[in-house]
Automatic annotation (TrEMBL):
Entry protein name: PARP catalytic domain-containing protein
Species this protein is from: Tulasnella calospora MUT 4182
PARP catalytic domain segment(s): 138-219
Range of residues in the leader sequence: none
Start and end residues of each stretch annotated as Disordered: 251-283
Origin superkingdom: Eukaryota
Length: 283
């Protein structure tokens, strides 16, 4: 048999066209992922069950404010980010690994404004273009330090950084739901804290962690009522899950009117500005 016609046999062994150097092995290159997608975690489906249980347990055990009843989780979605956001996060983790021989990656909660019906039903997984929806802004671009700095009074305890909490009940305080919606949503973010500087007092002028550190942790104590984890680099944090839960039975529940359905950003600049103002009212 000719090599050019297919496999060949020599001393009892069969050689393929690839081994013979006549063709190159087929290499599948998946298409680049360019946008964020959400995937409903079905607790009745075994491939999703471990993920669902992990996040549900984290949410429930991290509910620290006893004056607010632990709400019922209604749905959990996994966030799949564009390739470039995953790449920059992985590169930053590599930087921390080389610097400290450890990343100190944690799952933390972040409450923000939801201006659409995202997550209310299993099929509600399309990010909106509404100007008041910080949740979709964050899911689309991940967190941006440039959006920090104009938060409402008292929120920027550690300056212009990206804030998360280890307590789901703290993030709930900043999770603003559309008017008349029965559901609230908070982001579970993976945060590469690296080496953290521990603070018991606010330090509102920070624009970066103290020299030699990668993040700031605010501890409950002298003048802080809630814990904060603050990073000052975009690539140090990524949204990983969305938890949809019933409104806690609390008189301090905050709502915002659901915007008109056709309210859209006119361009990317407007989108960024709206995201800034909305996101700065969170944590
Ligand atoms: Zn939205």
């Amino acid at each position: 048999m000719s090599l050019l016609s297919g496999a060949s046999s020599q001393l009892g062994r069969t050689y393929s066209r690839v081994e013979a150097g006549l063709t190159k092995p087929y290499l599948y290159v998946p298409p680049r992922k360019l946008s964020t997608t959400l995937r409903f975690l079905d607790p009745s489906d075994s491939p999703d069950l471990l993920d669902y249980r992990k996040i549900a347990r984290l949410f429930e055990t991290s509910w620290k404010h006893q004056h607010k009843q632990l709400p019922r989780i209604k749905k959990i979605f996994a966030v799949s980010l564009p390739d470039h956001l995953n790449k920059s996060y992985d590169e930053y983790k590599g930087f921390l690994e080389a610097r400290w021989n450890g990343v100190n990656e944690q799952l933390m909660f972040h409450g923000t404004t939801r201006g659409c019906s995202l997550g209310e039903e299993e099929q509600d997984i399309t990010l909106c273009e509404e100007m008041t929806c910080s949740l979709c802004c964050i899911l689309r671009t991940s967190f941006l330090v440039s959006m920090a700095g104009s938060a409402r009074r008292g929120c920027n305890r550690f300056g212009s950084g990206i804030y998360t909490s280890s307590a789901s009940s703290t993030a709930d305080h900043y999770a603003i739901a559309p008017w008349l919606s029965d559901d609230k949503a908070i982001i579970v973010a993976k945060v590469a804290l690296g080496k953290s500087s521990i603070h018991y007092r606010a330090s509102e002028n920070l624009t970066a962690p103290p020299w030699g550190y990668d993040s700031v942790i605010g501890k409950v104590g002298i003048d802080l009522n809630d814990d904060d984890q603050v990073v000052y680099r975009n690539e140090a944090i990524r949204p990983a899950y969305i938890v949809i839960y019933e409104r806690p039975n609390s008189p301090s529940v905050t709502t915002v009117p659901r915007p008109a359905p056709k309210a859209t950003r006119s361009n990317m600049t407007t989108k960024t500005k709206s995201s800034t103002s909305s996101r700065c009212t969170i944590m």
